[in-house]
Write a structure and sequence with these properties.
single chain, 231 residues, alpha/beta, Rossmann fold, 8 strands, hydrolase activity, Dienelactn_hydro, Dienelactone_hydrolase-like
């Protein structure tokens, strides 16, 4: 495990946490952060994708606001900080930084040129936009927020996309889900799974809404999806 520096398309640079698999060359996975920065949860996820055999990289997407954010979901102050960062975050620039990360990891020693993305919460939204705006080979969203506002881009999805939706997501109400779930289900490149009774971040280990059975199912589906499309 280490960090690398990625050059942004519009100048400047940002750090990214990297976890390498035991054997290379292999495909890469860009792991996209929640609103808490590149914290222990994200580093553990990045390590887990490396353990599955991928060159995994998790970029610091808040670098334009405040580099090095590493907070948790355990205190009210941290939640307030996270929502403040979320409010200041420029989604379009974030996607460009992810595309820069994708290009960077494809050029790293040990990458065979194939690369996908997987994101959680804010990262789930960004993974959807990687499916619509980038040439990533496969993309996965875990309980992405705001997809209803971006569903007009769905016809741009040209590579396999997997979307995990929490039925009782407090940040993605039923009326929002009704806007994007049917559109994605009608797209031949997209697969949608709705997890009955689950709330936002049901796959965040140690989180308030963590549900092991649903998390294990979503993770298993993600593993199979990447094995199919990044092999």
């Amino acid at each position: 495990m280490s960090t690398v520096t990625v050059t942004a398309a519009d100048g400047g640079s940002f750090s990214a946490y990297v976890a390498k698999p035991s054997a290379t060359p292999t495909a890469a996975v860009v792991v996209i952060q929640e609103i808490f920065g590149v914290n222990q949860v994200m580093r553990d996820l990045t390590d887990a994708y490396a353990a599955q055999g991928y060159l995994a990289i998790c970029p610091d997407l808040f670098w334009r606001i405040e580099p090095g954010i590493d907070i948790t979901d355990k205190t009210e102050a941290e939640w307030q900080k996270a929502f403040d960062l979320f409010g200041k975050f420029d989604v379009d620039l974030g996607v460009k930084d992810l595309i820069a990360t994708l290009d960077h990891v494809r050029g790293m020693d040990g990458c065979n040129g194939k690369a996908g993305s997987v994101g959680y919460c804010l990262g789930g939204k960004l993974a959807y936009l990687m499916a619509t705006r980038s040439d990533a080979d496969a993309n996965v969203s875990f309980y992405g927020v705001g997809l209803d506002e971006l569903i007009g881009e769905a016809d741009r999805i040209s590579r396999p996309y997997l979307c995990h939706v929490a039925e009782k997501d407090g940040f993605v109400p039923p009326e929002a889900q009704a806007q994007f779930v049917p559109v994605l289900e009608a797209n031949s490149k997209a697969t949608v799974h709705v997890y009955a009774g689950q709330d936002h971040a049901f796959a965040r280990v140690g989180g308030q809404h963590y549900d092991k059975a649903s998390a294990d199912l979503a993770n298993r589906r993600t593993t199979e999806f990447f094995r199919t499309h990044l092999a």
